């Protein structure tokens, strides 16, 4: 069986164009549903490319050969470019048929012989250089049968082992110089572009086109058994484009969930002109996480509901409306806690209140450390300050522009509040600062 997604208009275009690679990836994701054995075939001297599928071991899974062929034909509905199908007992034979005797109708595809004769195919079916094709025409060779009847040694001496190897592989003969197939791996990222037939700014129309892209993304994620937390949308106008990063605290792969978030974000986009193209890109994915089913609600379900609520708030109010706390490996308190739009992993969600071997640290830090006013801390017997723990030396950052050398103390101030203060040793004389409060 052979599948060739080569549109007529693209045969003279270089294969490195992004839209050609995008179409190849799109067709691969559809064809990979039918068999795990699928390879890419690319002609060296002609701009022909396509897919070879081995389906002999998969027929029974689809109710026989006709059931499999029906499913393959139906899976190609909705493509915006022509495709050419051919099948044969050999992979190279199917490749030749797809180029010169391709099925153009559903009935032709079902009635196509499993092993049609290859003798009458033109010599242009071979991936031969132009000067070789001209030589064959001058010699009166027009079909593959005429080439097969030529003496083997003379053919190899005149035209090389590669063309003879392709002939032998098409007719089912073993040859050590038969062309090798390129094993295709799925793309590591998803990127597709949708052109709007009618340029518009209406949200409902944009959502319909976005839903088509999300359906393709869902198929791509399902084939990889992965989901994602972040998508990047681009809405292209005539003279500008609007970038829209869309994030989810809970990893998702279904199109309906992402469409629900996009619906809220579209209402806040400042469109100044009609949108002509919509582009969707997904770069970062995560493997599926299996959850055990239980009779009672679990902590995982509670976190999922909370994450969904955060997603809606960010979609309606903006990315900075909901931020998640992350810890960083930096002893400086002002740098040890960071706030980001995406949540931390489950193992990192519990923010430690103290570093290993350190005194307790408050989670409530002042935006900027304030100088201690009034009576300065003193640890004498009659002092208005009461020492609770410390000192903790923080000597860090001497290699960058924000070095610090401090002694931190946990103390009770004259107002009987438990505070976190430090003595800045870089100042001469050292000064006292108030940095945090314990709740």
From TrEMBL:
Keywords: DNA damage. Signal peptide: none annotated. Residues 331-355 are annotated as: Disordered. The keyword Oxidoreductase does not apply. The keyword Ion transport does not apply. InterPro entries: DNA/RNA_pol_sf, SulA_CellDiv_inhibitor. This is DNA polymerase Y family protein. It comes from Limnobacter humi.
